[in-house]
Amino acid sequence: MMEETSRAVFDARLSDPDRNPIGIMHAIDRARARKDGKVSPDDLFVGMLLAVSRRGKVRIGALEIDLRAVDLPTQLGTPLSPDPRFTPEATEVMKLAASLAYGDDRARLAPIHFLEAIGDLRPLLFSSLCDRLDIDRLNWRVALADVRRSQAGVRPVEWLSVTECARRLGIEESGVHGLIEAGELPAMRVCRDRVIRVRRDDVEALAASTSLRKPRDLAEG
After folding, report:
1. Do 142 and 193 lie in a common domain?
2. pLDDT in tens, 120-129
3. Is the pTM of this model over 0.85?
4. What is the largest CA-CA distance in the chain?
């Protein structure tokens, strides 16, 4: 488990334009280590992870990735191809990343834009990583958005489990599920819908309503 104090370090690396060329060079080196020398979206994915990694680990919002644990390389092989070429798919990633940076009012690309673009296009290695970590596209986008909020000085979104929601609302877990199904409590389903997460702010707002307060709570209020 990574230390909480390291989150700011990873957030800064993800948003640092100076780490973008480092990621590109890692991607090119990875392609050159193969005979074809073609830079693919997967090469860009690994390159950007390496560019923001620290001691073989990456943190993106609430997501923690140990590159060694998921069999992603932390060191690249000996270059074989002197003339790497970007595939049309890799070029598409770069165009989308540039568009995201423009929409983010940033003059320069940063690794976070590449990682967001890769999440939208879902190349093979990215999809494989998501399967191994049991995360989906929504998890990925929420994690990247969390980094954006942090860099903008906005409090990151805090997510609660159904058990934590039930405890805060003073009801059974089945009651929480009922509120979600009735549309009274917005929720996010992740890990192929097996896990439910609810924003703390939404839970607090619901807890403040008199309809869910216990008699003791009303008396104390």
Report:
1. no
2. 888 888 888 8
3. no
4. 76
